[in-house]
Amino acid sequence: MAKHIDLPGTIPIFPLPGALLLPRARLPLHIFEPRYLAMFDDALKTESRLIGMVQPDPLSKREGGDGLYRIGCAGRVTQFSETEDGRYMITLTGMSRFRIRQEIESFTPYRRCEVSWEGFDRDLETDESDPEFQRDAFMRLLDRYFEAKGLSADWGTLKEADDELLVNSLSMLLEFDPEEKQALLEAPSLQTRRETLVTLIEYALRGGGGEDRVQ
């Protein structure tokens, strides 16, 4: 994995509401707007091949700010394919979260920001554990949520996934509001992300139910 010394101080930014990328997780993206095609082409020319995923922050925009949440996650381009009409299907693998210091004025058609990687050391580890995870109760709660939402799932894959992959994949894939996605992103550890995820699922189920309540 990359070390802080290898992470650049300035990265291209892809603002996308509801799109959550987490360390060591993979995010597929469909790139077709000219400015983001240029961003992708430029990213491939760098050693790090990093693109910073950040959600727009409506409150910041209303208050005269740059309209971005302060914390995002940078992903490395690890796979891509080009369509016949010049679009790209790419995969970003999450490397580390970052904090935006300031946006940089430049001649590029896409946005670029000066960022800090400090405080996110655990993102650069090989994996993260959650010793308090009550997996059986969590899966029962998830089953109730999927049933209530009319969703189907590959339960075999979910049951075989390790704790981090399970929690992070669900955090990225389930439909939550942008501010709720941001709370999942900013969770300082896998345990707090799992607790936040459980709270959001229980909230969607109007508080969850007795024995399936997971702390």
From TrEMBL:
GO biological process: proteolysis
Record InterPro entries: Lon_prtase_N, Lon_prtase_N_sf, PUA-like_sf
The keyword Hydrolase is annotated on this UniProt entry: yes
Chain ranges of the Lon N-terminal domain: 11-205
One term of GO molecular function: peptidase activity
Transport in keyword set: no
Alphabetized UniProt keyword annotations: Hydrolase, Protease
Name this polypeptide is given: ATP-dependent protease La domain protein
Organism listed in the record: Salipiger bermudensis (strain DSM 26914 / JCM 13377 / KCTC 12554 / HTCC2601)
